[in-house]
Design goal:
Blueprint: E1 9-13, E2 16-19, H1 20-42, H2 49-72, H3 94-112, H4 116-134, H5 136-140, H6 185-206, H7 215-232, E3 240-241, E4 244-245, H8 246-267
Antiparallel strand pairs: 1-2, 3-4
């Protein structure tokens, strides 16, 4: 089992602290940017649109993700409202970020008058890659862990970072771990992200002639939603919706909706593309018959 409890701060320069969480997501964004440009070229799109598009989507996703996390973990913020907007912003809810980021991305692509489906397929693998790298920020913050476990890859969580579902004895210091280990949900999501990225890249090349624009993003929602639905059952102290974890409800609905759209899309024949008019070659054109003199 892993007893390492790392510091969330990578570099401390006077009052300025650089957190591993921010570094992880910065690296994830950089990797996503590289993959986005690569996929844009592969699909015959302008890679120069990626930078501004990523800025718009990233800002929207950060706002939505932060809002979702604050609502989900309200007990951590209700007595200190300023911590919602002050650094280090160590909590983000994926579904909040996906919702606002997707809306911003759709608006940006529409504004630029490009194909939503084509750009959705360009974006989908990079979402997995960014998540796979960024989730390691949760490890340094001792976040995104599940129920106690005796598995060899269980991680230690200090008492000061425990959720209400797994409290420590009152006499233990905040840095103590009480010898307990927990499911590393961040690791499961990271590995799932790397594998999901590879699968989408493979599908986009192997079955390109059979897929329709936007299919890869729908597969992303099916994949991620299924993984998240399963992992939510390993957590406690969730934001509940009629007694069910809200993230699990969102995950289940996203999977069902994406599957329904895929089924409807592929149960219909593709739209016929009108063939261009063929101009007969010069030697095949009719020539007027010679006049009889």
């Amino acid at each position: 089992m892993l007893d390492l409890t790392p510091s969330p701060i990578a570099i401390q320069i006077g009052p300025l602290a650089v957190h591993w969480y921010g570094i992880a997501y910065a690296v994830g964004l950089g990797a996503a940017y590289w993959l986005l440009r690569r996929e844009a070229r592969f699909r015959g799109q302008d890679p120069e649109l990626v930078f501004n598009g990523m800025l718009v989507v990233a800002i929207a996703a950060l706002i939505g993700g932060r809002l979702y996390h604050v609502i989900d973990q309200w007990q951590l913020y209700k007595s200190d409202l300023l911590s919602i907007v002050l650094p280090p912003y160590s909590g983000l809810g994926v579904y909040g970020g996906l919702l606002t980021g997707t809306l911003a991305g759709v608006a940006y692509v529409r504004w630029k008058r490009h194909s939503l489906g084509v750009w959705a397929d360009i974006v989908a693998p990079s979402l997995f890659l960014m998540q796979a790298i960024g989730r390691w920020g949760n490890f340094f913050n001792q976040e995104l862990y599940g129920s106690p476990t005796n598995l060899p890859w269980g991680i230690a969580i200090q008492c000061g970072n425990r959720t209400q579902g797994y409290p420590c004895p009152a006499d233990l210091a905040s840095t103590a771990t009480d010898g307990q280990h927990f499911q590393p949900l961040f690791l499961y999501e990271s590995l799932s992200g790397f594998l999901g990225m590879l699968v989408l890249l493979y599908l986009g090349r192997r079955f390109r002639d059979r897929l329709r624009p936007g299919d890869l993003l729908l597969v992303f929602f099916v994949w991620y939603g299924t993984v998240r639905f399963v992992l939510e059952s390993l957590k406690s102290n969730n934001w509940l919706f009629f007694g069910i974890p809200t993230a699990q409800v969102a995950a289940g609905l996203s999977v069902l909706l994406a599957l329904a759209i895929l089924l409807v899309r592929h149960s219909r024949p593709p739209r016929a593309t009108p063939e261009p008019e063929q101009t007969p070659p010069p030697d095949a054109r009719a020539t007027p018959a010679p006049e009889n003199g």
